[in-house]
Amino acid sequence: MEKIGFVGLGIMGKPMALNLLKAGFEVIAFNRTKEKVEEIIKAGGKAANTPKEVAESSDIIITMVSDSPDVKDVILGEDGIIFGIIEGSVVIDMSTISPSVTRNIAEKLKEKNVEMLDAPVSGGDVGAINATLSIMVGGNLSTLERCRKVLEAMGKTITHCGTNGMGQTTKLCNQILVSVTNMAVAEAVLFAQKSGLEAHTMVEATKGGAAGSWQLANLGPKMVNEDYAPGFMIDLQQKDLRLVIEAAEEMHLPLPALTYVHQLYKSNQANGEGREGTQALYKSVKRLA
Amino acid sequence: MEKIGFVGLGIMGKPMALNLLKAGFEVIAFNRTKEKVEEIIKAGGKAANTPKEVAESSDIIITMVSDSPDVKDVILGEDGIIFGIIEGSVVIDMSTISPSVTRNIAEKLKEKNVEMLDAPVSGGDVGAINATLSIMVGGNLSTLERCRKVLEAMGKTITHCGTNGMGQTTKLCNQILVSVTNMAVAEAVLFAQKSGLEAHTMVEATKGGAAGSWQLANLGPKMVNEDYAPGFMIDLQQKDLRLVIEAAEEMHLPLPALTYVHQLYKSNQANGEGREGTQALYKSVKRLA
Asked: CATH classification of B3-163, choosing from 2.30.38.10, 3.40.50.720, 3.40.228.10, 3.40.800.20?
């Protein structure tokens, strides 16, 4: 069995690392706050003091941290993975970060004869716990095949999306779809409510046809019930939408609808609703009325 | 069997009337241009010279015309249904029109002891031909029950949405969902294409999760293939979106995303693409880039 290094034991990373242990892999883990490593040790894993140390004793190193600068930091920064890595190993970044930063890091690793995969996920903490994540992979297909068993220990659907950065690009497309479709649901629910139409009936009547979406079926009823408990938190969605907008800027690409939803989520954040679920977009749409 | 009057034998109305004949109902039909009645006569139906004449020999009169003024005209105008109608009959308007106009007409018919249902449909000409339409019904539930067999001859899913106008309101919610979700797909496909990501792969990777929608699964691949043959035509979508915006105006309700999509479809119309399918929204999104 290959030895897996794991850097970043947050709400997503910890259950993913535990699933690797469950699947029989050796796991050596690093996390900035040390307490989170305890659970990995209890489950049979080992702890390292730096990302460099993780790399020194791993065949495949997974990073699962918050944002582009964090990935740069744990791979290229002081005591970073790149300073301990063994030629021929693979780095898999499963964070959601900038496609162009991803390509830069992949080039730096290439100089050390190390292949990188970008493999961001969707499916949330529930998917991380149940090992049912969707994993969108950028990088060499042969490298993906080498790592497939590892990815299969954490996810259900594994799609090869193209070269380095294309996993991240696919994830950002996913976030465009999720956000603007959510907007469709929010405006339809508001129109129904203001018209005196029972909005649950509207959702039931429309969700099976051309109007149907995951967002409508799952978030529509929550909007109607004013249930704003987070499935996916607005603050996290905003970080992903910032990545979309930055990538679009790099390409000089206007995305008016996505940008508008980003602004409405800012209204949520300004009103102290950043830790509510994305369905609270409905509150911002209502604030306009 | 009840006698059914049918006014409006367009691309939707004709197959619906034929399905009523197939189900064993007597049908007497009127259409402004006479040739279209021929097929109804061949199939065993009768022709009338005016909507009034249709009403004189029908228990239930269905109207399926283009827009609010047309429905007003065939029901309340010269030689209209209201001048021939028998007390106790029912008028079912299956056109997509204004909810408030619907309520006005229903009140006028009530004065004659005639109940009205608004019963707009979704599912397009294919649904009309195969009798698989979704029918969204506003009006008394008892009136709906009286007419259920008639509606079942034309559609598969029949939902009681509330009082008069609520069928129309549900249909307009459906069009908000369809249009803004379509926008989500157009921006995601464009982002993918500009990024050099194979957009079919993106659609496949995202459509099964929280990003998924009918629009993504069905129109996404058409955008990627630049296949703009109409499933549902932009010119028709625009008429429905005008109804949404008018109804929103009456309620002083801002719908920024829906209004923006309406503007982009105007760009399609301005560029001679009004008779293309709604997936040609992608062309307008591309024109911005």
From this structure: 3.40.50.720
ipTM value for the complex: 0.96
Give the 3-state secondary structure of B163-191.
CCCHHHHHHHHHHHHHHHHHHHHHHHHHH
Active site residues of A: 171
Contact B169 A185 (CB under 8 A): no
Distance CA B37, CA B28 (A): 9
Please state, in angstroms and rounded to a whole number, the distance separating the CA atoms of residues A30 and A53: 9
The residue of chain A nearest to residue B178, with distances taken between CA atoms, is A211
Residue from B257, B255, B282 nearest B267 by CA: B282
Rounded Cα gap, residues B187 and B190, in angstroms: 5
* Per-residue tokens: A116: 């990188």
User: Helix, strand or coil for residue B255?
Assistant: coil
- Over residues A4-41, the pLDDT tens digits come to 999 999 999 999 999 999 999 999 999 999 999 999 99
Of B162, B191, B253, the CB nearest to A197: B162
What is the reported pTM?
Answer: 0.96
Does residue B1 have a pLDDT over 90?
no
Q: Answer for the pair B47, B41: CB distance below 8 angstroms, yes or no.
A: yes
Residue of B nearest to A288 (CA): B254
B191 contacts A253? CB cut-off 8 A = yes
Set B14, B52, B72, B171: catalytic member: B171
Domain spanning B169-288: which CATH class is it, in words? mainly alpha
